[in-house]
Amino acid sequence: MTIIPLSEGSFTIDKTKVFVPFNTATEELNSRPIGSLLVEIQPFLVITQRDIILIDTGLGYNMSNGIPQIYYNLEKAGYNPSQVTKVLMSHLHKDHAGGITTRNYTTGEQFIAFPYATYYVQRREYEYAMGIGSASYVQADIQILEEFSKVIWLEEDHGFIDNYIEYQLTGAHSKFHQVFFIQEDNEIIFFGGDDAPQLQQMKSRFVAKYDFDGKKCMELRRVWWEAGQEKGWKYLFYHDISSPVFHHSNLT
Question: What domains are defined for the chain?
């Protein structure tokens, strides 16, 4: 399988939940409000023998010329957005789900961003996102899913997509967060979304206040780290600036 990180850049985020661009070469984190977190925003493209898979969709920003940044990043990697066959959503916070749709900023019209792909979305996460008022969810970016014919609503806590993509509901970072395992030819790719957003978090034990269930996140990271060491997983880290992909050599 081929993995392509689709970085949208580095940002800081504080209690306002606003993502502010950050230049790691010229800026210092202590220049930002106290408590600011430094994160990368990077969906992933995974090319398998049968699919071109997009995992999470980024912030949904447009370039200065009006082209969606995620389209630009895909084309820079050599792929047309129309080639994406599956879109896997870990959860629907705005930094992961903003690119589900794209908007014509001249007319205001909104479109599904990948009309030729099938979207896989946890039904309970969607209902939760649409039913509460929270700065972490932008309902206008996701409500189109209800109308789009090519959405597969995942209803179970655990299951498989086409017999080679496994999903597992964790309810750790968000109330109905899910993670994905893609397995092909004895290779396993693990995407933990915001349960496991950065490499360093896999190596240390701590409880984050921004998680729905921080203790569960901490314990799951330990379990996944040990399993990956044993089985040689490739980890995808959505918010890691320096290590978006990490591979354990197979120790078995």
Answer: 2-247 (3.60.15.10)
* Predicted confidence (pLDDT) per residue in 54-80, tens digit: 999 999 888 888 889 999 999 999 999
For residue 62, give the 3-state DSSP assignment. strand
Q: Three-class SS string for 11-42?
A: EEECCCCCEEECCCCCCCHHHCCCCCEEEECC
Q: What is the DSSP string of 70-92?
A: HHHHHHHTT--GGG--EEE-S--
pLDDT digits (tens, 9 = 90+) for 153-166: 999 999 999 999 99
CB 176 within 8 A of CB 136: no
Burial class (CB in 10 A: 0-12, 13-18, 19+), 209: exposed
Are 217 and 211 in contact by the 8 Å Cβ rule? The answer is yes
Query: How far from chain centre, in Å, is Cα 118?
Result: 16
Angle at 10 between CA 134 and CA 205, to 5 degrees: 70
Mean pLDDT of 213-234: 93
Q: Model-level pTM greater than 0.70?
A: yes
